[in-house]
Structures are given as C-alpha cells and as structure tokens.
Amino acid sequence: MDKTSKKIIKFMKKTPDEILWYSCEPYKELNLSEDEFYRCVRYLSSKNLIEFATNQDDIHLGITLSHSSVHSFEIKRDAFFSWFFHTFVGGVITGVVTTLLAEGAIYLCVKLIQLLHQ
Q1: Does the predicted model carry a pTM greater than 0.70?
Q2: What is the CA radius of gyration of the chain?
C-alpha cells in the first residue's frame, strides 16, 4: 500500500464508525488532489479495505472502513501466530519426534545385537 492510501486509512481510523462523505471534500483535509484521492479510494476498495456508502440508486456518496481495516492489527497478529506455530513449532516438534524415533531404533538394534551375541 502506498503512502497516500495509508494516509487515508489512518485518517479514517480516527473515527472508524463514521462515514467519510464525499460532499465534505475530505481530500482537502488530507491535502490531496481530488483525482489522487479517488484513485486511492478505488485502490483501497479493490483491496477490500474500505466499503462504499451508497444511496438507494447505488450511487457512491462516501466511504467507510471495512471490518478488516478496523481490526487489521488483530488479523495480522492471528496470522503471525498461525504461521509461527505451523512452521517453527511444528518443525521443532517434527525434528524432536524424528530424533527420538531414530534413537529408539538404534537402541533396539544394539539390544538385539547384544542378545544375538550371547
């Protein structure tokens, strides 16, 4: 995400439950050109970070943060822990179990050889 898109998201997170109405000309408050603002809005919409506030004729009147934008920290944290436990912890457990099985097999082979030589 580029700097301008982050600026819009950060601005909207100040009041996450409110709609940012186009009629209020939010691009002026953000020190952006109107064209740049609407390009970022289209980009953020394509990434499902914002949702459009529409009227009954489906005309876009403003934008609001999507659920994933409002709770992005929790979603990223959960994704990290899931990755961590599936890769790192899973790898360590697999390594320990494999080592124990190999050591057990070697121990049994040594005991078998000792029994055969008696």
Answers
A1: no
A2: 28
